[in-house]
Structure formats: C-alpha cells, structure tokens
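User: Can you predict the 3D structure for this chain?
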Amino acid sequence: MNFSPHNYQAYAIDYIETHPIAAVLLDMGLGKTVISLTAIANLLFDSFLAQALELGPLRKEEPILPPALVEQLRSLTPKGVPVEMVETLAAYYFANKPEDSDWVVLPVANFDAYFGTTSFGRKYLKQIPETFLERSETGFGLCRYRLGNVLAIKQG
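Assistant: Here is the predicted structure, written as structure tokens:
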C-alpha cells in the first residue's frame, strides 16, 4: 500500500521531524497514527540509520582474528566482561571497517539481541576502557567505535 499524505498530514510529518517536541491534535480519523508512524520511520530509518548504512556493501568474508590479537584481547579484557563479547566486537570491527575511516557504527541493540542479554549495552560495553575501545555515543541504539591504540591492530 502506498501512503500519499494530504497537505495537512505532510505539514505535521515535517513539523515532527524538525522540532524536538511536537503534539498532533487532530479529530478522530484524520491520520494521527499514520502521521506519527511516518515521522518516526523517517527519523529512524531515512536520516541517521540510512546514513550509517550507506557507507558501503556488506563484506562477504568472515574476518579471522590473528592469534596474537586474540591473545592480546584476552589479556586486556577487564574482569567480569565475557571475552567472547570482546572478540565478537573485534571481528565485527574488521568486517565492517570502511577503507577511509577508523570508526565503525556499532548497533548496540543488535548486539544485545545477538548475545541474548541487555547487559552488553548497559553493563559490559561501559566497562571496556577507552584506551581499548574508543566510543562516540550517537543515540538511537547506535554508537561509533574504534579499537584503541593499545592493540596491535593488524588484520591477518
């Protein structure tokens, strides 16, 4: 089904997208739900997330971490943080690192789902020191990160 908003609906959608606080006050049957959901979809997927996903295609090969890097990750992982999580982060980093940047977009909510716990984003990610995993909070369940200078980063 193709949604084509009326002028007042398009105005409301644009207003919601451009203002941090908005209220939609319309009579019953005039499209409050479709206005709100369209604005939410545009904010979540057409702006920030779309820019993150436009960096390039997914790589087909699964990265294999060099044994020296795996050993270094295990020795630097803080007590209480599962080593498997840190190794998965490093593998994800190498699989998704663009050629022209050290930063990688980290979908924290997806990692929570992958590990089957919300402890990844709320607890473990914050325990990893900045020298080991530098983060830049960006919101919407995403953050940018790069591996720190402490690690001997050489993809083998």
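The mean pLDDT is 79. DSSP finds six helices and three strands in the chain.
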